[in-house]
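Structure request: DUF4178 domain-containing protein, Sphingobacterium kyonggiense.
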Amino acid sequence: MFFYTKRIEEKVFSVGQLENPINTEADMVLGFYRNYAWTAFFRIYNKNAAPLYWDLSTNKTIPKRKWTGEMHALVKQKEHEVPAAPYRFKLTIVGYIMTLFFIGFFAYLTYDSLRPKPSYADQVTPIQETPKAGDMYFGRFETMKPGERVASKVGFGWFKVIENNQGQLKVAMNKNMSTHHKPSQELNSTDYEEQTIDANITSQESFQLNLISSDKLTEMYFTEKK
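Returned structure:
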């Protein structure tokens, strides 16, 4: 970011009545100077102008530690005659544009964080309707070996209803079932196995459909409908 500064001379006073503390034979002047800074986004003036005594024989400033009491008193007297800064802070056109941009950006972030989030019910298609051929559901399955109640195989992914014959369903699993849970959008929902599973509905609610295979070895739990 381009940055520019300079010192502006606001007022100069002749101080021939005072003695130069460094060189008694040399004259002095008292000047008041204000710093000015400019960037592409804003401009700044110092509120107070700084007093400086100049030795006219050397054109150098006299250190403040060398000032006499009379020099300090004259500064107090003359500082009221120094013009005030035209302004302290002012935005440039680019600064106005950037300020409006950031105000709009943070206003959007605030609005986005405070607005009501859609509920799960608003985001998921209800699945309380009777399954029909062609319906696709997302969920998981658990397969058990005969005589055991602990799942020997678990998978997550999409399922497709191939047929519903008076409550007797034929369901095909996707060819790319995942061994661990992933968002439904990340899993394949178009390619299904040719082999189907005969199943019956064990329970059905607005956002949950549970099935069990005819041989009682596979249970399916659907939570999302495509």
